[in-house]
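User: tokens in, sequence out, please.
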């Protein structure tokens, strides 16, 4: 399983020579501009997240690793009563606050915290937790899933969207299939590791953890969740135009899991 390699800096942790930049805080302004301009991957992820949410009326929901609050605001707009967004990056939380709230009838609060501990939050405080496009960015998956379980009430739900580990793997390469359609080749899928995209305009230049799909699913099971439903979304129109590959293979894997016991 890919836990945090000691040699790699995480935002508040030890710094490894040569691989400490950029952090999420470093690219927070760029990330906010990207989402504000309209991003095909993010609108695909958000639509998928929304499709997995139960009825939010009266619910108190935590949006984990919320970034500049894209999904947090969507939870409020979808009818949740209290929405809290949390992220370890102060720069991201500052941007989220600037986007404002409340939205709809819900109040939105933003808190700086580490998803691996969630020390700000009491046990069983939430009806639901969401995590959009961030489990791959969190060094210790088991710690984050354990903290998520702890802050959920019994039978509370956890809705997550991750980059599809079978297709967004570090050594993935886009090619043309025999019929001319875009396809993808993967090598070293089993090699779980931290990696950083070399694309200077890419989200994944901030670094993320490649883990196999079974690591994610077993992590949920180990943490005491039962899977309710899973999804592999088709691309939004914008994403299909930007990246036709994602009409052939799913860009994301998503699911809703329920806290048992
Ligand atoms: C790709 S962004 C996703 C943000 C947001 N959920 C969205 O959909 O736009 C990943 C986020 O994970 C946050 N993050 C990474 N490690 C974290 C941790 N240990 N605890 C809390 N947030 C973390 C980063 O600061 C960043 O805002």
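Assistant: Sequence out:
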């Amino acid at each position: 399983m890919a836990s945090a390699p000691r040699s790699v800096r995480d935002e508040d942790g030890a710094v490894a020579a040569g691989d400490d930049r950029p952090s999420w805080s470093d690219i927070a302004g760029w990330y906010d501009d990207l989402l504000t301009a309209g991003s095909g991957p993010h609108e695909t992820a958000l639509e998928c997240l929304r499709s997995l949410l139960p009825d939010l009326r009266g619910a108190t929901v935590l949006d984990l690793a919320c970034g500049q609050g894209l999904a947090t605001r969507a939870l409020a707009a979808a009818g949740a009563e209290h929405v809290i967004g949390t992220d370890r990056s102060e720069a991201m939380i500052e941007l989220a606050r600037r986007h404002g709230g409340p939205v709809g009838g819900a109040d939105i609060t933003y808190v700086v915290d580490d998803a691996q501990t969630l020390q700000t939050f009491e046990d069983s405080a939430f009806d639901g937790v969401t995590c959009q496009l961030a489990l791959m960015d969190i060094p210790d998956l088991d710690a984050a899933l354990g903290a998520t379980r702890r802050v959920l009430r019994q039978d509370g739900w956890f809705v997550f969207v991750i980059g599809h580990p079978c297709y967004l793997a570090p050594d993935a390469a886009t090619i043309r299939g025999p019929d001319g359609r875009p396809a993808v080749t993967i090598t070293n899928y089993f090699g779980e590791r931290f990696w950083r995209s070399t694309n200077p305009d890419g989200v994944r230049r901030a670094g993320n953890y490649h883990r196999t799909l079974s690591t994610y699913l077993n992590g949920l099971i180990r943490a005491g969740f039962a899977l309710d439903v899973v999804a592999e979304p088709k691309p939004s129109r914008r994403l299909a135009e930007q990246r036709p590959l994602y009409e052939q293979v799913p860009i994301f894997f998503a699911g809703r899991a329920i806290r048992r016991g």
